[in-house]
Amino acid sequence: MFAWLKQKLGLKRLFASSDQDPTIPLPTKSLDKKILYLKRQFRESPDIIIRELNIGFNGEIRAILLFVDGLVDKEALEVRVIQPLIQEEYFKNIIGTNLSPLEAITNHLILSTELKIENELYRAVERVMQGETALLIDGFQDTLVLGHRRFATRAIEEPDTERTTQGPRLGFVENLRINTSLLRRIIATPNLALEMTSIGVVTKTDICIAYVKGIARPELLDEVKRRLKSSKIDGLLSSGIISELIGDSPHSPFPTIGVSERPDKVASKILEGRIAIIVNGTPFVLTVPHLFIEHFQVPSDYCSPWIMQSSLRLLRFVAFLLSIFTVPSYVALTSFHHELLPNYLAYSFAAARMSTPFSAFVEALILSLFFEILREAGIRMPGAVGGAVNIVGALVIGDAAVNAGLVGAPMVISIALTAIANFIIPSLFEPATFLRYFYLLLVGLLGFYGLVYGIIVTLLYLTSLYSFGIPYLSPISPLIPKEMADTFVRLPIWMRVFRPRQFAVDKKRADFRLTHLNNDQGENH
Fold this sequence. Notes:
By secondary structure, this protein is α+β, with helices and mostly antiparallel strands. The chain is built from 18 helices and 12 strands. It has 4 domains: 14-146, no CATH class; 176-290, no CATH class; 306-471, no CATH class; 492-524, no CATH class. The N and C termini lie far apart (93 Å).
């Protein structure tokens, strides 16, 4: 009965004792009890350093430094923290003052640009696990947390997944603060807000929510915070886990949350009213809401004349359609609808298939599976070997399969065209692959009638998708004519006067180009 009352009334913490090694220690001013708790907590962690110090005049005050070996700058810790605390000459500045030892240390002795005070020991320990240093002083309950992080990081370089012919060559890295600084360099305004939170019961992974105050909609920001707060998980190791936790349609093959490694791309989305989610430990930054049309927009579109870039964007749409319709259309024409082919082309396809033992549908499945195996092998193998594997597999094995009469040459050409077109839009590789197999199965059963049925189902499904309350096919469906300036084609920058109304509160961009034109016209008159 007594144990039941303690659990129901929340008194378990009051009855706990530091000798029992509780998860959350009791508040205490005794340094010995804190050391006992820390040594029991980290008795199997040799990288956790507990450095005992005697500070003050004649070393009358006991203290300890707690940090993780490999995550802190030891040299800075010795010069800026340990040396001022143990050498008496540093205490001359506080002789005759009425400051307490804690106030004197924080205001006059420690040379640290980042200093915080934690009232709870377990919160200070959490910060230590993330690379900070804790200073515990005998006789004081509060813990000083110092920011002297230093650990190995990857150099800033151009991301491999989003290469561009023009524009910046910078990419995000695994360090959260470096990533936020890259955004600050581009969006140099105090209105850029960076709110911190953490997810993961065990990992305590830091997450930064980036947006521009006055542009992003408050209700969208509140929804992002609500979904992040409701995400309960033991460990957060990548931003992809966040996508599954907070996405609108976790079972959808189409991503409803944007992913990018480029700071310029993320900055442009933030300036439109979107919200970025930066996860510590991963170079992939999430942006919400995310629309289907964004897969066809690349940073180089805005670095060249709009006419050429508009034609290239249309080429991406054509490549996407080829990647999902080439193989199903070939199977439908050769298996069900021969009358739609010209005579000489029908004779050519028939001659190529006379020596093959399988139907066109089975040939497509075999070669598609073969292509997927080659792609996975090329990704998993080292870079120099992966390219050789793809070349040998595509040329040697493909040619051997045709000569052996297992598959026809037209099918190999169709698969090759599909593979090339599929790589033009990497972010849609998985959805395009899913749709291709889905359409191939329908075509194998019903021919072109199955393909039409699949297209109708796909369009209905896409129109039902939402990304944080925004229709996934916007501004195409529902149609918003004022926002079509950057969809199928990219019109000149000076014609894009307004931000997307679904995202932004401040919808008016800086119309410097229009103002310049109006001034010129006034002078001419």
